[in-house]
Here is the input.
Amino acid sequence: MAITIKEVAKRAKVAMGTVSRVINDQPGVNPKLRERVEQAIKDLNYRPNARARSFAQNSTSVISFIQSNRHLLHPFHVGVLQSVEEFCAEAGYLVLFTSYNYSRETKSSELQLPKVLQSHGVADCLILAGMNSENFVEAVEELGVPFVLLKNTYTGGEKSRPPVDMVGWDDFAGSIEATRYLLELGHRDIWFIADTSYSWYKARFEGYAQAMRDAGLEPRGQTIGLSDNLYANGYACMDMILDHGYPVTAVLAGYDDIAYGAWDALVKRGLNVPRDVSVVGYHDEDQAQFKMPGLTTERVDKFAVGRQLARMAIEKLRSPGKRLPEVVLPMTLMKRGTTRMLVREASLL
Amino acid sequence: MAITIKEVAKRAKVAMGTVSRVINDQPGVNPKLRERVEQAIKDLNYRPNARARSFAQNSTSVISFIQSNRHLLHPFHVGVLQSVEEFCAEAGYLVLFTSYNYSRETKSSELQLPKVLQSHGVADCLILAGMNSENFVEAVEELGVPFVLLKNTYTGGEKSRPPVDMVGWDDFAGSIEATRYLLELGHRDIWFIADTSYSWYKARFEGYAQAMRDAGLEPRGQTIGLSDNLYANGYACMDMILDHGYPVTAVLAGYDDIAYGAWDALVKRGLNVPRDVSVVGYHDEDQAQFKMPGLTTERVDKFAVGRQLARMAIEKLRSPGKRLPEVVLPMTLMKRGTTRMLVREASLL
DNA sequence: GTGAAAGCGCTAACAC
DNA sequence: GTGTTAGCGCTTTCAC
Here is the structure.
C-alpha cells in the first residue's frame, strides 16, 4: 500500500541500509548517495512507517500522561498537560493522554489498569498526574515502566516515597509566606477556607496554622467542604463564617476559585474587598491578574511543573533505570489588589 | 528482555498461533488449551508487545487529537479533549494529544507538520480541533489520513467544505434565540460584544444582527477586540460603551468570560446586573451556574461535541474511506439570573 | 562507506 | 481446532 524503504532504495539505486542511514541522519553516508536517496524520498513522497520503526528499534518516542482521579477541566491540570506537551514536542516526543479513575482503596494487584498499561510498549515512560495514591503507583512499579510523579497530589498512606522521580512545590512554605504577609498588614482575624481532606489543602492549612501560632494567634479554618465546585464552596464557606458573625478581616482561600466564591459572598453582603476584608488565593489562575482589583495569590507555576515533569520523563526514557532527584518548585506571593493594610478603626474609637 | 508469545506457547505446550488466538479472544479454541494458555500468561506475567502487534496488524488503536492555534487552557477546548478521551477509552482507543500552531497564510505544501504526521502510522485517524484553516486541512487530505474536523472554528477561505466529517453547532440560530429572548423581555438597547474577526463570534454577531433587524432595531456591536484575554476584553468593551454614554439595557457577550468581564465593569460603575443591565453569555462554562446570580447563557454542549468527534473518528477508523454526514448540535438558552424583564421607567416619566 | 541479510514479536493464511 | 510458517518494514550487524 504505502511506499516502503525498499522502493526508495530501488529508485535511488542503493541498499535499504543506506536509506535507513539517511532517514536517521546517521553520519558516514557518501553525500552523492545521500542526495540520491533524498531525491527518491521526495519523488515518492515517502514517509517512514512509524510502526515498523518502533518495532525494529524496540522503542517509541511516546510519553504517556495519565491524569488520575481529577477532571482535566481544572485549570491547573490542563496547564500542566499543555506544558508537558509543549516540552515534549520540542524534544521530539509525543504525548498520549489518558484519564484514569480509581479508588485508593482497591488493592494494587486488583486495579483495572488503563489500556495504555495493559499491553507493553505503547509508551516508554509515564507521567502520573492528577491525584494519585499508593496502590496505583505500586502497580506501575510492578510493571517496571519508568514514571515521574506529580508530588503534591499524591497521598501515600504510611510509607512515604523516597525523594526521587517527583515534581512538586512547597505548599507549606507558600502558605506561611501568605499568612505572614497578612499578619504584616495588621490582620489578626484571618480565616482559612478549603477542604483539608485533600492533602495539598492540608499542607496549606498547616502552613497557615503554623504562621498564626507563631504570631500567638488561633488558627480559624472552615476546612470542611460544602460543595464540590470550588467557587461554590468558597461562597458557601464565606457565607457560613459571616452567618456566625465571626470576626474576620482577611481570608486565605485554598485556591483562586475558592477565593472568587468567597469574594462574591462578601460583595453580596455589601462588603468591599479589600476595604472590609482582604482575600488571598492560591495558584494564580488566568483571571487573577485581570480581575479588578487583581487577586492577591500564592502562585504555583503550573507550566514549570509541566516542564519539569516532561524533562524528567524524557531523561528517564533515555537512560532507563536512572533515578532523578525530586524537584521542589517555590511558590511566589503575587501581591495585588485584594489585600490591604488594616487600619484598626474599631480600636481607635 | 520481556516475555514473548513464544515463551507463553512453550510453557502452555501449544503453538504460537493458539496463544495469539487466545489473546485476541478469537473463537474456536479448545477450552482446555485456552485454560492452559491463560494460566501460562498469568504465570509469566505476560503482556503482549503493542509495537509488534500494531506492526503485524498494520493498524493502531490510536487517535490523534490535534489542537491547532488555540491554548488548551480555554475551558471549551479542554472540555472537548476530555470528552473525546472518555469516549475513546470506552471504545478501547488511545488519544495522542498534540498542539500545533501554524499561520493560515502558509502554503499548504510548506507547512511544517507536527511530528505525529511526519511519519506514517502513528495514529490511524485524526481529530482536528482548536482553530483550523484551509491550508492545514488540505495538507492532511494530501497525506491521505482520515480525519474529523471541528467545524465552527474552521475558516475556509472561499471554498467551503462539503458537509461531511465535521462536528459543529448552530451559532447563528443560537444567537437569534438569545437576542429574541432579550427582545421579549422588552429590551431595545442591546449591545453585542466580541471580536468578530473570529468566525464563530462573527456567526453569533450575525444572528444577533438578524434578530435585531427583524425587530426593526439597529444592531450595536463592540466587535473589535481590545484584549486577547476574554475577561479583560469584556471589561474594556463594556467600559468603552459606558464611556461613550450609549444607551444600553442589555449586553450579549460572545463568550461567558467576556460576559464576566462586562459584568464586573458594570458593577464597578455602581450598576447592578440584572437590575440596570441584563447580561447574556455563550457556552455555559463551569462557573455560569454557580455565580450569583447565575449567568444566562446560550449553551454549547462541549462534551457532546467531543463525543461526536470521537464517535466519528472511530467509525472512520473502522471503515476507511467512509465519509460521515456532518453533525450540527443545537445550542440551548439557559435562562438564569442575569436577565430580567425591562420595566421602561424612563418612558413612564 | 555500502550492501546483504538476520531478526524484532506478532498475525494470519494455510496445511493438516 | 491446532500447528507451522511466511511476512509485516525497518534497524543493525557483519562482511566486504
